[in-house]
Task: inverse folding
């Protein structure tokens, strides 16, 4: 049996160890067979033989257990060695990152308004009907609600369709004067060359105490100055329009930066590019937040649209496809 124990101690693999265990202690094992001898002994012999066999069995089992642990440890060690990753290995791929063009554009827009003493406000992406529509003078069943294809949740909440609800939240939290912009993502159920279900807007709101403190001229000045900061020496015009939350309302065009105003494909041969919506804050909006004896203006713009014009990107979807060949060009 000494030899068998030695064999156990010299095994190199768990499978080999199991073979030895079966050969000794299995149904047809050597030790098992010896236990069978007990049946043919008389009482006296039985006692000594049983003692001897049990000691042997214990010895074998002890050695099997020890060797099993040794081999398992060895196996773990070699597996860890094989799976080791050398984090100091040199990486030949070019891993230098870059800001996304939409964020670069947003940074520049924010830079202008901060320099003009506007503050930066944020609002939630999941909005309620009151802030996204009702308080912005868009009551239920108002036809202008159809302008925005809304994503609704089961509980009546919705993904904000524009950044204008931040106007309402700001006025509910602060007293005038207010001078703020609110950048952020907005969501509409829409997808083609010029629309994606998520895009970015910047909202602007200025409110002063006094019915005549803020006029349309203040709005014209800031937006003209802003567009010149962004695009250089462009011509700017205000075209009468409609938004439920402003009265009067206007859309702002600038002379086409691709053809200089003579007409091309980008401006549909009009010489003008539409870039902003704006107006004097509608009195119904002030009523919704219980503001009295105030005046103000508001505006809203799409950041992707600005980025398309600024960087000359023809397809809006290029901003959302994460194609490195495109994104690398903005490093
Ligand atoms: N909320 C409008 C939109 O999503 C943009 C807008 C237009 C915002 C005029 C304004 C505004 O504050 O005065 O289309």
Result:
């Amino acid at each position: 049996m000494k030899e068998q124990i030695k064999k156990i101690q010299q095994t190199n693999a768990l499978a080999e160890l199991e073979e030895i265990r079966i050969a000794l202690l299995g149904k047809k094992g050597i030790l098992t067979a010896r236990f069978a001898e007990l049946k043919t002994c008389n009482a006296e012999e039985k006692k000594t033989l049983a003692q001897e066999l049990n000691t042997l069995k214990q010895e074998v089992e002890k050695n099997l257990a020890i060797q099993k642990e040794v081999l398992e440890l060895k196996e773990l060690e070699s597996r860890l060695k094989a799976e080791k990753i050398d984090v100091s290995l040199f990486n030949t791929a070019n891993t230098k990152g870059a800001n996304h063009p939409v964020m670069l554009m947003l940074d520049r827009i924010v830079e202008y308004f901060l320099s003009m003493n506007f503050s930066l406000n944020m609002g939630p992406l999941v909005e309620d009907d009151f802030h996204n529509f009702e308080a912005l003078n868009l009551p239920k069943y108002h036809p202008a609600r159809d302008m925005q294809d809304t994503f609704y949740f089961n509980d009546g909440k919705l993904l904000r369709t524009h950044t204008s609800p931040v106007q309402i939240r700001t006025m509910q939290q602060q007293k005038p004067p207010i001078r703020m912009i609110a950048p952020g993502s907005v969501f509409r159920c829409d997808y083609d060359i010029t629309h994606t279900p998520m895009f970015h807007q910047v909202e602007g709101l200025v409110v002063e105490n006094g019915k005549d403190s803020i006029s349309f001229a203040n709005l014209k000045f800031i937006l003209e100055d802003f567009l010149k900061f962004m695009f250089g020496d462009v011509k700017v015009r205000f075209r009468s329009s409609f938004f439920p939350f402003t009265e009067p309302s206007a859309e702002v065009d600038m002379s086409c930066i691709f053809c200089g105003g003579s007409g091309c494909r980008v401006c549909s041969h009009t010489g003008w590019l539409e870039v902003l919506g704006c107006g004097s804050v509608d009195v119904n909006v002030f009523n919704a937040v219980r503001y009295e004896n105030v005046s103000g203006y508001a505006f809203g713009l799409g950041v992707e649209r600005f980025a398309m014009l600024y960087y000359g990107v023809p397809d809006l979807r290029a901003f959302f496809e994460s194609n490195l060949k495109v994104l690398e060009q903005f490093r």
Summary: DSSP finds eleven helices and nine strands in the chain. The pocket of 3,4-dihydroxyphenylalanine is lined by residues 162, 164, 203, 243, 245-246, 277-279, 298-300 (CB under 6 Å).
